[in-house]
Amino acid sequence: MKNFILVEAPVTSEANYILLHLDPGMPDEAREFKPFTDYTTWLARRGYAVNTDKLYSEHVSRFIDYVYEASKTQFPADVEVTIETVIYSYQVYLLFGTDATNPIAKTLAYSLGKTRLTGQNSIAESIESSIRWFLEVAESKNITTPDHLFSRFYSSRAEYRSQYEVSAHKANSWMAAVIRGSLNSVLPKRKQDKLFAKAGRRNRKNDKQPFKILPFPIERSVDFLRQAKPAKSTTFYRDMTLYALLAATGSRTSEALQVRMPDIDGDDFAVFLRDPFARKTPGITEEEHKLLSWKGRETEVTFMIEPFAKIFWENLEKYLTLEYNSSVGHDFLFQNSDGRPFFASDRSSRDKTLKKYALKAGLPDVTGISTHSLRHMYGTYTLNYMPVPGQPLPGLPITYVKILMGHASVTSTMKYAKHDTDIIEAYIQHANQYVMQRGDASFTTIREEFYLRQLEVLKDEANRIQGTQHD
């Protein structure tokens, strides 16, 4: 830290850690940053483990150092600097450091030497909660014991002062009231809300799709993936690599688009789908980071099916050789023509490209077809048609398909990989033929025939048991 030092508290203190100013001109009795001591005292009273107490104290001390540095930094006149903008810029500061485009985060990253980037997962797991609690403790204490750290950000915001704040100003403590009111606007209103934003799951209720997404016709899939490259295309192998990956693994489009080079094991021919928020993502912009998504996946390993796996590895080699740009600063596998991550491209544009290739491969109608259709195809195939050695009927058990598709529950698998209508239609046609061949009278004997068949099954089972006993 630049402005403070974190030290163990004296034995006489209830807190485990205190934060001391490093300003040489500050009197010794004023070096201790009291709001931090209040916070660590609160931590100690809650009985956290030693390592947790230390971790949370370190997170908050770095946050205070950041805010303090902001309080003595001269920003450009066109940059709005308030307690809200400083606090909300902290996430960008942690994630991007000196590569941030946010002027507050970028300026402070250079000033504080922030070169080691923080992962989104660390923010979500402990940084967010530790700062939230510090702000809540500080808010309650500031009413009676004012802290002037944030005063620079509100010295010109007289329009926010209530009558209480004007009175407090006369007592040289009006800033405490200002901070108290301001933090109420900064802190989330409900416990489940987040202080620092993270990409959320897609809300399908907001999707404006005039049709239902359909499985890609499996009988057309190989021709679709093995079609000839257009003469002028510069992204053909990228697109076919992506489509083959979706067909071979059944992954969500967002999962496939966020595959990075370390996720590909060419020796064992394996591809892993990993949470982008569980690791750092160097080389992408703040706007690109906002477009990262993760719906949740139980397994990061994929189970690739043929012939799509073979097609994927063939196209991957051509894509990396002919189209991939290795000097773009990030390691996402799929790129736009300009080298930026493909996951940040427009979804409707990606679906439009797939439909163009699908029509070229002979699909008569592409209504309801999108990149997600390949995931539907994978689920439909593995659940209903996939040949299984030693099993009279094709198709894997639904509990296995659940694992293949990374679902948390079988309910999700039933939704995405439901039994195909042509199987149901085949059963109905067979039953209809049976009835039509025997005429209307078949209904009068249908229950009798059912019981006769059941009796035959029971006799066969009894004979089998007797044979086993004799052996």
TrEMBL record:
Transmembrane stretches, start-end: none
Keywords carried by this UniProt record: Chromosome partition, DNA integration, DNA recombination
PROSITE patterns, A to Z: TYR_RECOMBINASE
Coiled-coil intervals, chain numbering: none
Signal peptide (residue range): none
Keyword Transport: no
Segments forming domain Tyr recombinase: 208-429
Keyword Cytoplasm among UniProt keywords: no
Domain of life: Bacteria
Record's protein name: Site-specific integrase
Species, as recorded: Pseudomonas hygromyciniae
Source taxonomy: Bacteria, Pseudomonadati, Pseudomonadota, Gammaproteobacteria, Pseudomonadales
